[in-house]
Every structure is written in C-alpha cells, then in structure tokens.
Design goal:
The chain is mainly α. It is about 80% helix and about 0% strand.
Amino acid sequence: MSIRRIALGLAVGLVLADSSIVVLALPQIYRDFGVSVSAVTWVLVSFNLVLALAALPAAMVARRVGPGRATAVGLAIFAGGGLACGLSTHISTLIVARCLQAVGGAAAVTGALELLPSAVGSERRAATVWAAAGAAGAALGPAIGGLLTELVSWQSIFLVQVPAALIAGVPLLQVVREEGTRETVEAEVRSPGRPHLPANLALGLVSAALAAALFLVVLLLIEGWRRSPIAAAAAVSVIPVAALLAAPLSRTVPDARARAAAGAILIGGGLAGLGLLPRATILATIPPQVLVGVGLSLVLSALTETALEGRAPQAIHGGWTIAARHAGVVIGLLVLTPVFTADLVDERHAAEQAGTAALLDAKLSPLLKIELGTRLADRLGAQKGRVPVIAPAFEPAPSDPADRASWDSLHADLQDQLDRAATHAFSTSFLIAAGFGLAALLPIGLARRRERVLL
C-alpha cells in the first residue's frame, strides 16, 4: 500500500470523522459555555451544513487549480480551523471555527477523490477506497471523541487534528509540485455529467438516520442515563466495530442496489429497536447498534459507488455525494433536536410528579419526608432542567434499619422513574430516524427501475 494512498485515506477519514467526532463532547461543551442543548447542536450542524454547501464549489476549484493543491490547501485550512476550535472560549467562536474547518475539509475530500485513481489503479477502486475511508471516519468519530473528552478534554479533540491533517498533507507535496504548470491542470479538466439523483437522495436520507444513531444514542447515554463519556464511547463503538466486521459481507453481494436496500432496512430496524428499548441499560442498546453498524457497512459504500460509477470527473460527483450526505445530517439534526428536547422536558415533569407521589406514599416519618423533599428540590434546581442525579440527595441515609429500608426502596423507585422517563423521551426521535432510513428504499428502488428502463 503506497504512502500516498494512506495519506489520502487519512485525509478523507479525518474530515468525515469531524462530522461526528464532537458528539460525545457536546454535553461538556454546553456545560463549559453555559448554553442549551439546542444551541450546542450548532457545533455539529454548522460543520455539516457548510461542508454540504462547499463540497461542489470546492470540487470545481479542485479541477481548476489541481486536486493536489486543493487537497493540500484544504488540509492546511482544516488544521487551522481545528486549532481555532481547540482555543475557543465562546460558543460563537467555536461555531465559526467549525465552519472554517468545513471549508477546508470540503476541498480536501473532493480533491482526494480525484487523486485516488492514480494511487490505487482505477476509478472504480478509488471510489471504493474513498467511500470506505469516509464511512470508517464517520463511524469511529464519536468513540475517539469520547475517549479524548474523558481522558484529556473536549479541546483535545480538535487540537489532535492539527498534526494529523499536516501529516496527511506531507505526502501530497510532490503532487503539488507536479501540478506546477498550467498545462497540467488544464489537461485534467473534463465536462461533468449529470449526478445520480436517486443514489444521492438515498444517501441524504440514510445520513439523516445515521446522524440520529450517533447523536441520539450519545445524548441518551450521557444526558438521559448519566453515563460517563468514556462509557458512552465504549457503547457507541459497537457501530464501527459491527461495520468493520461486516465489511467482507458487502463483497459477497455484487449488486450495489441490493446491498443499499439491505443496509437501509437494517439501519431502520436498528433505530426502531433503539426507540423501543425495554429498559435503561447499555446492554439493551447493543443489538440495535449492531444492526445499524452492519447496515452502515452495506449502504454507504453501495450508494457512494453507485453515485460515482462511470461518472467523470469524480471530484465533481464526489462533491455531490458529500453535499447529499451532510445535507442529510443537517436535516436529521434540525428535525430531531426540537422533538427530543421537548419530549425530555415533558418526561422529566411526568417523572417529577410520579416521584412526588412516591415520596408522599413512602413509609417514612413526616420529618424525613420533608428533609428528603428539600434535598431533592435542591438537586432538581441545581440541574437546570437536565435529567437530575438524585443519589447525593439520599446521602446520608437514616440510621434506623426500618427507615433505611424504606429510604433505599424509595431511592431505587425514583431512579427507575427517571431512567424510564429519559428512555421514553428519545423514543419518538429514534422512530422518526428509523423512518428516514426506510424512506431511502424509495430512491434506491427508483435507481434500479431507471437503470432497467435505460437497458
């Protein structure tokens, strides 16, 4: 495997990982900056929105100035944006820096697709490598981000991208030198054909569903069930692990549309499973995440290959696929964020009412009930609308054995109320996301039908 191929794969994976790498850090970011969940969502939305808007213009620029130059400059801008993100002290500057990263990332990923055929031997193989690197980056992003957030800080997520982007750019300097003459660049300019609309539409719908799979699972684990970022990172690593293990399976199904359809169904089924979780336990999320991971392995590669196959120049059509994918991510986030935030507020209120009733019915003395009620009210007030951590309110426990038993039973009952409320608050959003995944079957079917008509 050539160094250039590795560098290009790293560049694509690094940029597309950035569309999801910050997911596990969002709770810490909005605590540090004192903003709402809806506001901090724009740390994700801004990157994906600008990447979607900039992808096609960046591809056109790459054709004019040369893909090597575009990729190298794009990686430099991406690195500079990452440094600005890591040094940000306000949510607005972080969002602006994310937009800068997206502009550089758009140039890097579209230019890389134009460079890959010479590195791997064919345009078909280049499309496969490009799609695989992007899918791996998007899937691994949350787990890597969670580990860095827990072990170092959320700022480290962006700071480590600076040397990574520069390392990926160094092997491309030779390509830049080869593009030193205007004649070389002009020789690469070809008229683009039409984009594959059904495949790109399906990519957008699937990406909207996958954004939910990553974003909602992370928020459910950290904000709903109050797990640590490192525990959440371990949990969501199920998706990329399943995707990697399922990669050989995709090679056994030569029909790209059959793979895409199967992947969309698996993603839809996995998200529906997450929307119908029976209890608040990480183990219950694993089987649905496995389905999503296998579906991811099948559908992204199949749709990207379909969108690029036989279409030149590949940078332009790669720009269309990037635009479709990340527009889908933006739509998914914008549709689902208000749904689950409103449901979370409603479920929290319902849990508080049920908890009040349980406290009044508990077999405790009136004085203990008043004391505990005051502690719980203080905890609820301190959490500012979030799902509260109530364990500190139950410490210290009463010394009398009879009171202690009722005290512990009430603690378990209230915690169960909160866990069930948090789980249910995300159900509607997961089911809507499942609908996005299954809706991709329509353009996938239209793609098959259109090709049959052409035959």
